[in-house]
Every structure is written in structure tokens, then in C-alpha cells.
Amino acid sequence: MELTFILNPQKILYIEINLDGTIGGSHHCLYEMVRYIHRDKYVPSVLFFQDNPLVPEFQKVCDVHIWRVDSGLVLERDFPALHNFLIKSYLLKKIALFFQKAFNFFGSYIPNLVAIYKYIKNNKIDLVHANNSPDLTDWLIVSKILNVKIVSHLRFPWGPTAVRRLLINCYDKIIAISEYVANQLTAIGVSGGNVVTIHDGIDIDLLEKTKIPSADIYNEFNIPSDAHVIGVIGNIRRWKGQHVAIDSMQYLIGKYKDLRCVLVGEISNSEQDMEYLIYLKKLTSKYELENNIIFTGYRKDVLNILSRIDILVHTSVFPEPLGRVVLEGMIFRKPVIATNHGGPLECIEDGISGFLVEPGNPEVLAEKISFLLENREIAKRVGGNARKRVEEKFGIEINVRKIEDVYEDLLGKG
To answer: How many angstroms separate the CA atoms of 41 and 47, rounded?
Structure first.
């Protein structure tokens, strides 16, 4: 048998583009991707645009660089009094905006391109892998100048600007995490030959072995030992639909007095998300569910909480690209109820490895929760089927092998 030795592993630079201050599924997927990429073929490094709690974990497996983003000149922020004066005149407002754009182009954008050029050149990067979406136009431009391959990993339904729509086909390959996301790309005119669907993979063994010890949530949140607990796990955003879970509780609380709904999720620094959190708490108060709805905020021990709940509910009112937390619940043999659009359709076989319900319908959601609480054997069987499905279809080995196939195709190593 002929053996092939790769003396010079090629360098892959992974860039996490998230800038809203939250830690989500994309970070965890990126970590597993970097951790399992074959070191005999590739040398990974990761670049973040902001510090985050997972950086120490990444540093254990690869080099990490924090790239500070220059926000440039914003008159409204930097010179509010001048801004308020200028906007009184249409002409002065237009002149001010032109000056702001020109200043940022020559003072921030061009120097940033030069810095990117030097970084890729000095670190001898062979391929840039943009994690989350194809929005790194500056890195795309420099990669093309240097003839460095660039891949985008699209993890959400993408609404591009006119410029980004023009540039998206310049990426050498776009990895969609579900057929749903791939179809969205096709719908906006992305070349089908430039898109490959690779479902996110999960390291099942690592997930089970690295649960962070924590206080029992029953004690921490004063939950009665015989109470039923449903969990909604995801960053607090309106499209995630946490309000639907709260609405559903009004149909359940009369029958299950000790039922608890645990909302586990971080809040971003956006005003819109903060307003939504306020709305959720008002909704909780409206239904007099303060003792039944638990807001945990950001938690490092999400897996511990997941292992303790009875049912995982995924309430997205806008189609979820895939739904990593759905897969995590399935790994822990939890009966999962998810909305029947987007990625969960590819994760769950309805009635076999989980349940799919109409989005935005709290009454239907309540009926399904009640069904599972009343039929524990069915819940247990579905949870077992869920575990088998993840093992067969969403293992990390499958995911990494397919990503490496993309690299090998682009870099010419078979």
C-alpha cells in the first residue's frame, strides 16, 4: 500500500465574525472543528474580533489572535453636539456624511486592508475560513489579491446588502449548515456549484465528559423535587420565540402547578434584544408566572441544566438554520419539541426522534408538552431514538471529514 506523507501541513485561519457580545452555537461548532481537524494535514489558528469566555479553551488547541476592530469616526457618537447642529440643515448633513465616509475609508478601511494583507502574508496562511457568514468583504478582497483560498461557513439565513450580494460568488466555497440555508443562498442567486451542505457535527463523547460541575438547578432555583421542568435554551432574541414558551405556560399551569420553564440564554448588547427581555418579563408578570418561569442568563453549565430538564423546547418563530441545541438535547436523550421549519426538519423525524410543531402557536406547543408529561414511556423511547439519530448522522467525525474534503478540493491535496 502506498503511503502519502504531508511534510508541510497547510495553514488554515478561522475567523469568528460575531460581534454582538454573545456566545452561541457557532463558537462551539468552531471549537470542535478546530479541535478535530487533522494536524498532519492542517495547522489551524483562530481569529476573534472580541474577547470571549471561550478563548482559553481555544488556546489549548491552537493559536488565537484578537483582532481589534476600528469602528472609525461616527459623528453622532464622537461629536454629538456638532452632529445635532449639522442635521438641522439638509446640505450640511449630506456634507457631514460624505466627510465621515471619506475619513473612515482612508483613515480606517484602507489601513485595515493593509493590516490584513500583512497578517495573511506574514503568517503564510493558505486558506481563510470565515465562520458564521460571508460578510468579511475586507478579508475577501485581500485573500483574492494574495490568491489565498477563502471559504465562508454560513450558519444563518443571510440577508445580504447589494455589495455583498455581488461579492458572495467570489468566495471559493460556501458551506451551508443545512439544506434550508443552501436553498436560501440559491434563492438570492448564489451559484449552486459554489455551495455545499455540511450539517454541523457534535463531539458526543466530549459533550458528555466535559459537563462543568455546578449546583443542582433544583436547589439553586428552589424547584420542588417532584416538579416537571421544561427548558428553552438559546440567546434571548425575538426570533428565538421565548415568548411562545411563556404563552404556552398559561395553558399548562392549571394542570401542573409545579411546572417550571427554564429560559437559559445570554442577552446581547443590542437595544432590540434588551427590549425583548423586558417584554418577556412583563409577559411573565401578566400571567402571574414569576414562580414558574426562570431566567438564568448566561450559563457556563448549560449542559448540566440540559441533563436535568424533562423536555427541551425549541421555539424559533423564524426558521432556525440548523439548531445545535436541538442536537445536544437529542444526545442527552431528551424528548425535543421544535418548530417545523428550517433546520429542525433535517434533525428530527417527527414522532420518532422528536416532535415538530407549528411555529408561534403556544396552544399546540402546550398540548405536545402535556402529551409528553402524561406519556413518559413514549418520551423515553423518543429520547433513545434521538440519541441514535445524532450518532448516525451528526457525529463530529462525519462533519470534519466533509470539511477536509472541501479544503483538499480547493488546495489540491487529495
So the answer is: 20
